[in-house]
Amino acid sequence: MFINVNYPSVLLIYTGGTIGMIENPETGALENFNFDQLQRQVPELKRFNYRIASYAFNPPIDSSDMEPAFWAKIVKIISYNYDYFDGFVILHGTDTMAYTASALSFMLENLAKPVILTGSQLPIGTLRTDGKENLITAIEIAAAKHADGTPVVPEVCIFFENELMRGNRTTKINAENFNAFRSFNYPALAKVGIHIRYNEQQIRQPDTTRPMKPHYLFDTNVVVLTLFPGIQESIVHSVLHVQGLKAVVLKTFGSGNAPQKEWLIRQLKEARDRGIVVVNITQCQSGAVEMGRYETGLQLLQAGVISGYDSTPECAVTKLMFLLGHGLTQQEIRERMNSNLAGEITKHYD
Predict the structure, then answer these.
(1) DSSP-derived secondary structure letter, 192
(2) What residues does each domain of the chain span?
(3) Fewest CB atoms within 10 A around its CB: which of 17, 22, 165, 249?
(4) Which pLDDT band holds residue 350 (cuts at 50, 70, 90)?
């Protein structure tokens, strides 16, 4: 059979999740369908003049069970097939999709091709599913090229409910509605209606002199500590003394503020002295940490806590695990957490 190599080519990677499920007519239970049946379930794909191949995790992974070993598997699949496809679409459960997108943005260093994650709130086999539209549009975006042949969106993104968002800027906000994801601190890279309108000024461009470099190492000795009124020293002490702990994502109030408690600052200073990296992010969905703005934030800065700027929680956690996995020193990790590695933070909040 003759294959026109000029056709756009997309590799679908099905990890699991609602989008890949159909209802068993006998039991009514949702079951993963065989991805070899994809074109029968989504006949609209035949209208694409694309070469579409698929790879399915066996068994599929519920997104609640997603972890770094599976991120590494995704990266290996992309790396192995990198030269053979124009873009990649990852079908993924929604619950941890933003974590996976954030992790992949760091693991696929100098990515020069689209990696689009999508999923659905309703199974693709149901009548009102949002899965078909999400899948079809994600494939179209993954295959989109400029007139000179370069990809339109050479970065890791999430496409959901008519918006294309940078993966490491995205968080899940809704378990009920179709607009499940939002990028609060960074504009959408594209909005989809009758046409797909790309926000080209906001799309990252790779260094064409360097190849894509895959990474696989992670260290998960990270914890998220959320402050709240009335939090006790014993709680903070127990968290900061977890055996093997190497980094903390500290979720503070407003623009990075914390209670003015002597014991809190002492606990954070002692953690820093033990080599633990503490990163400050806001509990607010929108906005950023500015620790020099108020005395309640300045005290954290003086205690050695570093700014997470406008990072999402998903991004802060995965970035720390990624940096810890590469055996960097505390100072090197602190410097890279304050660096914009993959478009994940906005530095004008300095």
Answers:
(1) E
(2) 9-214, 222-349
(3) 22
(4) very low
Report, as residue numbers or ranges, the catalytic residues: 18
User: From the CB of residue 118, how many other CB atoms can be counted at a distance below 10 Å?
Assistant: 30
- Cβ atoms of residues 135 and 187 within 8 Å: no
Contact 344, 101 (CB under 8 A): no
Q: Cβ of 134: how many Cβ atoms within 10 Å?
A: 27
Tell me the C-alpha distance between 12 and 36, whole Å. Answer: 11
Beta bridge partners of residue 214, listed in sequence order: 108
Q: Is the dihedral of CA 100, 101, 104, 106 positive or negative?
A: negative
What is the per-residue pLDDT for 27? 72
Q: Secondary structure of 63-129 in the HEC alphabet?
A: HHHCCHHHHHHHHHHHHHHCCCCCEEEEECCCCCHHHHHHHHHHHEECCCCCEEEECCCCCCCCCCC
Give the tens place of pLDDT for each residue, 151-163: 999 999 999 888 9
**Cβ(291)–Cβ(260) below 8 Å:** no
Do residues 173 and 348 touch, judged by C-beta distance below 8 A?
no
* pLDDT (0 to 100) of residue 175: 76
Among 51, 52, 65, which residue's Cα sits nearest to residue 15? 65
If pLDDT is split at 50, 70 and 90, which confidence band does 220 have? very high
DSSP 323: H
- CA gap 349, 195 in Å, rounded: 34
Query: Under DSSP, is residue 9 helix (H, G, I), strand (E, B) or coil?
Result: strand
Query: What pLDDT is recorded for position 134?
Result: 87
Distances (CA, A) of 337 to 9, 115, 247, 311, 318: 35, 23, 11, 10, 11
pLDDT at 314: 97
What are 252's strand-pairing partners? 282
Q: List strand residue ranges (DSSP E) for the chain, in order.
A: 9-14, 21-23, 30-32, 51-56, 87-91, 108-109, 115-118, 156-160, 163-166, 171-172, 181-182, 190-192, 196-198, 213-214, 222-226, 247-252, 277-282, 306-307
Q: What is the CATH number of domain 222-349?
A: 3.40.50.40
**117 neighbors 90 (Cβ within 8 angstroms):** yes
